Records
---
Amino acid sequence: MEDFLAFLGKGINVGAIYALVAVGFTMVYGVLRLLNFAHSEVFSTGAFAGMFAYQAVIPMALGPLGSSVALLASLTAGALASAGAAVIIERVAYRPLRGGPTLPTLVTTIAVSIFLQQLGLRTLGAKSMAYPVLTIVEPSTLTLSALIVCSGALLYFVFRTQYGTRIRALAEDSALAKLSGIRSTPLILLTFAIGGLIAGVGGVAYGFHAGRIHPEMGFSLAIKAFMMAVVGTIGDIRGAVAGGIALGLVETLGQVYLPPGYTGFRDGLAFLFIVLFLAFSPQGLASSAKAIRQRQRVKALLAREGAATGRSQV
Amino acid sequence: MNAEFLAFHGVNTLILVLVSWSVFIAWRASMFTLGFHGMVAVGAYSAALVLRATGTTEPSILLFIATLVAAAGGAAVFALMLIALFTRVSSDYFAVGTLAAAEMVRIVLSNTSYLGGSLGFQTPDLVALQHRSAIYLVLLVVAALLLLTALVWYQTLLNAPYGLAISAVNCDAQMAEFLGVDSRGLRTGIFVIGSAFAGLAGALTLNLKLSVTPSDFGFVAYINVLLVVILASKSHYRLLLWGAIVYGLAEAIRSNVFGLDPAIASYREMLLASVLLTILLVKAWIERPSVDGLAEAEERR
């Protein structure tokens, strides 16, 4: 039982990283209906920027606060670099195609992703790099805290602030939002920047968690995270978090409970989970939950109406 | 540049055309798939399975035909399975689902020791000819015949009332259904047949290279297919053929000039991604609505 709980904790931790990436995907899709494959490279940018910042700050920072300052610098640099990368990608590659057909835009995101990945391979090398060891806090605590803080702040921003309301309006009906005087371009940039910020934090957390990073790491991780955004109903922040954690649990528990010699199928298990989920719940987790709630409400309403009619007949 | 070199690149180009064509017709029927590399992998490994099961090391033209049949059948069955799984899934979600399925295939193949695992599968030469150039020439003829069959079938389909039905489904599937078009059946048929041809491309790859590994079928390795399909966009498939041929020629020239220099080869994906990006941005710029067009659209609104 203790082992199971430990694996559960590990699964939630892995899932938290997926969730941090999935949130960025889901935000961009919610506003632009765009599957941003280049988000994987935004994530990698954050991981590398965080590593370089940590390595630069740690020799300068003295005293007991040294590690805290370095960690803070790492998270800030990762988040800012990723946000910057996301904004540049939006400006250079996506904006010219905005409003056009979906297909070329989607392929553009794939092309940007591959270009950046290959650029990373050429400039940073194909070998994986060792990430600094975190001394001040456990990597798992950092990952979970990052997820709780980021998703909490994001939910507050989206549901409680004026800018968040505007973003939701844009996501709901862009034409109506524009007619109401909402300027879409700055809001889209803001959405990309927020998605980038969170992915950057996720990248740094991933680096400390995994211990090694390389330029190609983002693609497969982000593809899975992106699929989890789909599983959690794309466009829904809470769904993306739930989907990411579900995938982390499936992967970790699958690796533990798969028979020896079959552990190589771990990644396949994640993809199988995605395929089956799409097959049985094509609109995703949040939509299914919403549908169930609506059905229950209708049932309750009908039952109440039936009872009232019965009383009147009596 | 000798005959062997030309024939080898000729087969490679025709394989690219077959895969691109299968993606093109699926997209035209609004079956937006990103799992085409999975179809090619299933085709190649179905062919490999036939060779593994028979355990042959001798050339056999019958077995060569059997590999083609197995490849087409394997990919078609896989496509049917995907359609059955994703009955209620469409557009972007279908693309994601097919991508996940293709990645799953690659992982399963990497972990199946019967087919060589991640090291892949070596095959014997099934065409009994003395010179490699003659073997490539046979493969070239087979690939050309397959492509011709595919094109004749598609052209016949377009000329038949089905052609209009495909256009209608492509324009507005819901409206087409209201008008009595069986859009689901039509799409399924096109997707399955397209996948069968992608599978055949896989079998040809196996017979050309005499080996396959799961890493040959990664998504990034097939970015050239996206390049060619996007170039053709939703226009006529002739543009697709020309695009693939030009690309094949460029690849042949690249390998002739630079040989197998790993430093140059490593820039292939980066170069392809940049070309793809440039084409898309230039296309968007050319096709942007003019000021008059915008005013007209505003007036209409």
---
Amino acid sequence: MSLELFLFLTLGILAVVSAAAMIISKNAIYSALFLIVNFGTVALLFLMLDAPFISMVQIAVYAGAIMVLFLFVIMLLGAEQTTDTSRRFRWLAGVATALAAGFLSALSIPLVLSGGLNLPEPPGEAPQVRLVHAARTTAPIEVRLIGGTEQDMPEQGLLLERELTFGTTTEFQEVAVEPGDYILQAFYTGQEQPASGGQGNVLLSTRVTLANDEVQTFVITGEMEIVQEDGAERFTVLSPFEVTSLPNSFADSGSDSARILVANFYTQDDVLLVDYGTDGELSVRTETVTDDEGNERDELIITDTVVASGLGYGEVSEPVSFPEGTYNLQMVAEVAPGEFEVVVPLDDWQVTSGTEQNILLVPDYDAVQGEEGFRPRVLDRTQDEITFRTAESFGSPGDIGQQLFTRYLLPVNMVGFLLLVGLVGVIVLTRPQGPSTESRATRNRRRKVSRPLVSVISQQTGGEVTVEPPKLQEPGSGD
Amino acid sequence: MTAVPIEAFVALSLVLFTLGAMGVLLRKNAIVVFMSVELMLNAANLALAAFSLQWGGIDGQIFVFIVMTVAAAEVAVGLALIVAIFRNRQSINIDELHQMEG
């Protein structure tokens, strides 16, 4: 039996026993005390349900404030024990017990028969998307997401990035769409072009699939040239634009290692990522192998640690789990069989545990104006950590408070109004019966004034007494 | 997700709710009846928190919070009623409070 199950059983039994004791005990004080025990155990159960804030509120408000109020009223009224004089409702006990048993069985028998509640699965987090511009062009491109069945999708599509410049990697952003198939479109937005979304300058239109609880990196590759013609900018697509989706499943990244993913968007040669080790050289040894036809030939075998190998253009390696540390990584291209050439040295490459590294080999556009043309470089040196909403923030005061102030502001206001009405109701209900002493005094005074001794005098004298009402002088009459 | 199935929490809340309902029906003391109502509200809160965890959303816990506030208002008004009744009739035995009987 796990600790949690043991705790649950202990608390559950304690809760049921204290609730039963509350009902059974003859003295209302004991009932209240048992109810406090019950509220305390339920508070601990809230803690088990990842609701720490609710648990604390339960103790402070329920077990604290409300129960103090109950005890106070019991003591005030001296109502610990009610005189059980009436015999009118004796039959009610049996009926109530039967009703309770019927209620419990009506709800629990189907529960047992169907083998649980068959609760629906949670919808999960919205899909997250990140874009990488790795195409051979200086021009910024605009990326939009269109299509799908989403009703509130804008006509021009969902703008993912207005100006994606070469070599940049956007932050992961949540895409507020239903999971499903969409079309990812990239546009060239030159200065002479219409604002955005013009159909003439679509560089790319690819179907992508977005799923909940998934993070994806879209690498946009291709080649484009901008020529000045009659004072206007024209663009020519030299090699087709493509989107490569890098797999990101952070669920299986270990705590003591990082995940490394290598992709080649630079050369047609096969690319390897090799850890050269401390000697700073590629260690190889030749081995003579015999193939199926009995011919002997030499084969080069790299004895250093190979992170990824055999990556042709546009190919992405499988994610490799790599322990934490500093490595002497080298991006090596196999220019000819058995001939290796370092493309990009990644000396003193830091690998931090719990992160994900995408090492993308892309052309270096900064060097394109030089004579050497495109030079390779490695994109995304930063190590990305993706933060999904973790269990720590779930049910925390901050989490609940933010919801109360944003989505649930109207219910909170209504509850506040209800409390105000309750306050007024309490004042009205417990107001002392009859007129207060002050108003009685006022009435008596008024009686003395309004009933002068006229009637008394007329009784004693037997004659009629007329009282002239005092004549009021009109202001400003001039008399 | 805890090792305890959500169904266990729901079943416990069911039992507590039934106990509260029995208390409402069986007891004669108005204050104890009132405490039983609180027990029922609390059982509903437990089920809400359990479903909130199952769904992975915070909404259920917000509901618990609002129910607690409503319960506090209800307790204040209810106890005021009991005090007013006691002042009039010197008793809070609900069997003796049947002046509205037709």
